[in-house]
Request: fold
Amino acid sequence: MTAGKPMEEKELFRLLSTGDESALEFIYLKYFTALSYYAFKLINDTEAAKDIASELLIRVAAQPKVFDSEQHLKNYLFLATRHASLRFLEQAKKEQSSYDALGQLSEVFDWQSDVEQVRTRVIAAIYEQVELLPKGCGEVFKLIFFEGRSVNEVANILKISTKTVLNQKLNAAKLLKAALLKHGLLAVFVSIWGEL
Reply:
């Protein structure tokens, strides 16, 4: 069948109802360009508009509906194209929203990752300074600040008096404060563990 040869409505609908390929060819040649253009005006995407028009025409031919007239068919095709275009826009909006959310999440993770890397380096530097303390001071300091033990608990663990624990703590704090201040880490220590 050629595009120029008209088809009578009855014949068209009879062929459509049987799934005849010549009916598909006829409606494809007659409506594809108009439906593609209509979809394009709605979604502003040439390839997607052509896909919408093609899929719709193939669906109409594959699952025939009962049409009263060619005007009924035409109205159906344009209405279905509009709905398909709106679904396309809704899906595109959801996808864009997902991409945006992933992008923001990625930025947050990147930022958190950077902050965590800096924090890890700073904590490693602080631990390094603690390791440089004299043995007794270092042990007391770690138990109090890193493990959160009380003075009495430290005294029991190390089998020393509470007075010795307090002296070691004071000594450790003095030495460590000077070292951290020298390396610009005192403020970070205070923000993580509190005052020395």
Observations:
- The radius of gyration is 39 Å.
- The first helix runs from residue 9 to 18.
- The CA atoms of residues 44 and 136 lie 74 Å apart.
